[in-house]
Task: structure prediction
Amino acid sequence: MIKFKQKGDFKKVNSYFERLEEAIHVGFLDRFGKAGVDALSTATPVDSGRTASSWGYEIEHSKTSVRLSFYNTNIQNGVPIAIVLQYGHGTRNGGWVEGSDYINPALRPIFNQIANESWKEITKL
Result:
């Protein structure tokens, strides 16, 4: 017969996770949200400039996560123009306008920075 006995609690582990949660605070993500909006605005193909100036971000909190989301408010006739520029679209006469991947290259350095700085914060605790 095998018996297991446990003493103590998870106080140290819980304390560590609480410190991690405090390390990823709103100011940290707010800085990257602003940088992401700047990067997207600069990278967006410009015709009128409306799509480039319509980028924004949102920080959402829950008990288990924090989410940084980017969005674009330029919608024409129900069509999100930023997505059309990214992936391409059909034309009225049956043609096709090729999209240009501008979102991923613009945000990649921002995401890398978030990962690197988050790792530094987590490992210094």
